[in-house]
């Protein structure tokens, strides 16, 4: 497919230039508030936030051949191949000066997860799972409906179903390895962040310059 040129990673979570990286996957249903919490983690713990969706959108906007291909696939209602997303994540990690990354909204399913580990040889340090009831997520999404077409009841319920069917097996896999830190995301933002902080041991704290 040609996406993987010069971007393969070696075992033990090093990028091709030997850079060691720490990866935390951030998973949660639509409206679970993970975006807000990712911003807090970046601020307090110095991680770089990589959103699979944002990287795909940025690639489309760049006007590259890869971006045009992604845009056409989305237009045709096709799912962008995981190699493309993994390639963009790898590039972002390699080009960053940071070595700690929150990967948000990926892997979306077991196939993504297996491919990410096989291609990058990176196993996440842990997985932050923002657990929130459907009722609460629905309430939040409808409340923030600022002209987002996809935030109507039917679409919201479809998105929940996709999340449950596809992403829960990923969480179960990492849970069996003792790598899931489950956060009750139904509480107010500050309370949720207090629990998030306990998931990050002091070794992750930002050193004051």
Automatic annotation (TrEMBL):
<dbReference type="Pfam" id="PF00406">
    <property type="entry name" value="ADK"/>
</dbReference>
<dbReference type="GO" id="GO:0005634">
    <property type="term" value="C:nucleus"/>
</dbReference>
<feature type="binding site">
    <location>
        <begin position="78"/>
        <end position="80"/>
    </location>
    <ligand>
        <name>a ribonucleoside 5'-phosphate</name>
    </ligand>
</feature>
<dbReference type="GO" id="GO:0016776">
    <property type="term" value="F:phosphotransferase activity, phosphate group as acceptor"/>
</dbReference>
<dbReference type="GO" id="GO:0006221">
    <property type="term" value="P:pyrimidine nucleotide biosynthetic process"/>
</dbReference>
<feature type="binding site">
    <location>
        <position position="159"/>
    </location>
    <ligand>
        <name>a ribonucleoside 5'-phosphate</name>
    </ligand>
</feature>
<comment type="similarity">
    <text>Belongs to the adenylate kinase family. UMP-CMP kinase subfamily.</text>
</comment>
<keyword id="KW-0067">ATP-binding</keyword>
<keyword id="KW-0418">Kinase</keyword>
<dbReference type="GO" id="GO:0005524">
    <property type="term" value="F:ATP binding"/>
</dbReference>
<feature type="binding site">
    <location>
        <position position="112"/>
    </location>
    <ligand>
        <name>CMP</name>
    </ligand>
</feature>
<feature type="binding site">
    <location>
        <position position="144"/>
    </location>
    <ligand>
        <name>ATP</name>
    </ligand>
</feature>
<feature type="binding site">
    <location>
        <position position="187"/>
    </location>
    <ligand>
        <name>ATP</name>
    </ligand>
</feature>
<feature type="binding site">
    <location>
        <begin position="105"/>
        <end position="108"/>
    </location>
    <ligand>
        <name>a ribonucleoside 5'-phosphate</name>
    </ligand>
</feature>
<keyword id="KW-0539">Nucleus</keyword>
<comment type="subunit">
    <text>Monomer.</text>
</comment>
<protein>
    <recommendedName>
        <fullName>UMP-CMP kinase</fullName>
        <ecNumber>2.7.4.14</ecNumber>
    </recommendedName>
</protein>
<dbReference type="InterPro" id="IPR006266">
    <property type="entry name" value="UMP_CMP_kinase"/>
</dbReference>
<dbReference type="InterPro" id="IPR000850">
    <property type="entry name" value="Adenylat/UMP-CMP_kin"/>
</dbReference>
<feature type="binding site">
    <location>
        <position position="57"/>
    </location>
    <ligand>
        <name>a ribonucleoside 5'-phosphate</name>
    </ligand>
</feature>
<feature type="binding site">
    <location>
        <begin position="31"/>
        <end position="36"/>
    </location>
    <ligand>
        <name>ATP</name>
    </ligand>
</feature>
<comment type="function">
    <text>Catalyzes the phosphorylation of pyrimidine nucleoside monophosphates at the expense of ATP. Plays an important role in de novo pyrimidine nucleotide biosynthesis. Has preference for UMP and CMP as phosphate acceptors.</text>
</comment>
<dbReference type="GO" id="GO:0005737">
    <property type="term" value="C:cytoplasm"/>
</dbReference>
<dbReference type="InterPro" id="IPR027417">
    <property type="entry name" value="P-loop_NTPase"/>
</dbReference>
<feature type="binding site">
    <location>
        <position position="148"/>
    </location>
    <ligand>
        <name>a ribonucleoside 5'-phosphate</name>
    </ligand>
</feature>
<keyword id="KW-0963">Cytoplasm</keyword>
<dbReference type="InterPro" id="IPR033690">
    <property type="entry name" value="Adenylat_kinase_CS"/>
</dbReference>
<keyword id="KW-0547">Nucleotide-binding</keyword>
<dbReference type="GO" id="GO:0019205">
    <property type="term" value="F:nucleobase-containing compound kinase activity"/>
</dbReference>
<dbReference type="GO" id="GO:0006207">
    <property type="term" value="P:'de novo' pyrimidine nucleobase biosynthetic process"/>
</dbReference>
<keyword id="KW-0808">Transferase</keyword>
<dbReference type="GO" id="GO:0009123">
    <property type="term" value="P:nucleoside monophosphate metabolic process"/>
</dbReference>
<keyword id="KW-0665">Pyrimidine biosynthesis</keyword>
């Amino acid at each position: 497919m040609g996406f993987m040129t010069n971007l393969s990673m070696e075992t033990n979570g090093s990028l091709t230039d030997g850079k060691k990286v720490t990866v935390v996957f951030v998973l949660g249903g639509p409206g679970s508030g993970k975006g807000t919490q990712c911003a807090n983690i970046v601020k307090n713990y110095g991680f770089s936030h990589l959103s699979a969706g944002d990287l795909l959108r940025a690639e489309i906007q760049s006007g590259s051949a890869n971006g045009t291909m992604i845009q056409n696939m989305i237009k045709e209602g096709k799912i962008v191949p995981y190699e493309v997303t993994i390639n963009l994540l790898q590039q972002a990690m390699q080009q960053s000066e940071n070595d700690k990354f929150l990967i948000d909204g990926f892997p979306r399913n077991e196939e993504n997860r297996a491919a990410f580990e096989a291609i990058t040889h990176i196993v996440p340090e842990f997985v932050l799972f923002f657990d929130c009831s459907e009722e609460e997520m629905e309430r939040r999404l409808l409340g923030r409906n600022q002209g987002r077409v996809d935030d109507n009841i039917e679409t919201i319920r479809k998105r929940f179903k996709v999340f449950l069917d596809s992403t829960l097996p990923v969480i179960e896999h990492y849970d069996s390895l003792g790598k899931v830190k489950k956060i009750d995301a139904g509480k107010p933002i500050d309370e949720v962040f207090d629990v998030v902080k306990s998931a990050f041991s002091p070794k992750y704290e930002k050193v004051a310059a």
